[in-house]
Request: fold
Amino acid sequence: MSLREELEAQGFKTYESDEIEVFWNPQLCQHAAECTRGNGDVFNVTRRPWIDPKAASGAEIAQVIDRCPSGALRYELKK
Ligand code: SF4
Reply:
C-alpha cells in the first residue's frame, strides 16, 4: 500500500504537484497556523482548495510541514 493510500484510508485528503504530495487530515488539525504563517501562498484558508502545492517548491513545502505540531499535515516528495 502506498503512503497515499494508507493516509487516505485514515481520512487524509491529498493535494499534489509534480514535486510533492501533501496530505491533510481535518480531524487532526489544531489550527495552530504554523502552516499559514510558514507559507501563505501554499496554505491559505480563504481559498478552496486551501492547500496549493504548486505555489512553492516541494522542498519549501516540506520544511513548513515539518513544523506542523499536530500531525495533520504529512507529505511525500516525488523527486
Ligand atoms: S500547522 Fe498543522 S495543525 Fe496547524 S493549522 Fe496547519 S495543518 Fe493545522
Remarks:
- The beta strands are 13-16, 20-24, 73-77.
